[in-house]
Amino acid sequence: MIEVLVLHGPNLNMLGKREPGIYGRMTLEEMNARLKEVGKMWGLKVHAFQSNSEGEIVEYIHQADERYDYILLNAGAYTHYSYAIHDALRAVDVPAIEIHLSNIHAREPFRRMSVLAPAVIGQIAGFGYDSYELGLYAIKKAVERKVNAR
């Protein structure tokens, strides 16, 4: 089974309460349960963690090198300035996909820049909770391509 680390960054523990007009009403716990269910249908084992701490996110990424096949990362506000997370993604041999609930390119100017983008294989933004599910789908398709290429 393909092991997927889903990392939720700062303030995502407030989903369902924080600006529901932008981020929706589903809680983080509800979303993680949904991702685990969808992942299971697609042969992916989803492990989800949330941290408000940049250093803790870096540690999860470092640990992913030996434990996970893919990373889905919503780094929240760290997306726009965390070179530490960028460097951690570059330091491990685990493909990562950057995820955002909102369309960061249509928001405030400071949110339009991702310093993580050069360190990930792709970015999915603007589809609300479905952004995460689309990330899992991208992993499913990547795995299928690898199997079919053999």
TrEMBL record:
The record marks 18 as: Transition state stabilizer. The active site is at 23 (proton acceptor), 100 (proton donor). Gene3D superfamilies: Dehydroquinase, class II (3.40.50.9100). Substrate binds at residues 74, 80, 87, 101-102, 111. Signal peptide: none annotated. InterPro entries: DHquinase_II, DHquinase_II_CS, DHquinase_II_sf. It is an enzyme of class 4 (lyase). Keywords: Amino-acid biosynthesis, Aromatic amino acid biosynthesis, Lyase. It comes from the Bacteria. PROSITE patterns: DEHYDROQUINASE_II. CDD domains: DHQase_II. GO terms for molecular function: 3-dehydroquinate dehydratase activity. It holds the Pfam family DHquinase_II. Pathway: Metabolic intermediate biosynthesis; chorismate biosynthesis; chorismate from D-erythrose 4-phosphate and phosphoenolpyruvate: step 3/7. Its EC number is 4.2.1.10. It catalyses: 3-dehydroquinate = 3-dehydroshikimate + H2O. GO terms for biological process: amino acid biosynthetic process; aromatic amino acid family biosynthetic process; chorismate biosynthetic process; quinate catabolic process. Homododecamer. Belongs to the type-II 3-dehydroquinase family. Catalyzes a trans-dehydration via an enolate intermediate. This is 3-dehydroquinate dehydratase. It comes from Novibacillus thermophilus. The lineage of its organism: Bacteria, Bacillati, Bacillota, Bacilli, Bacillales.
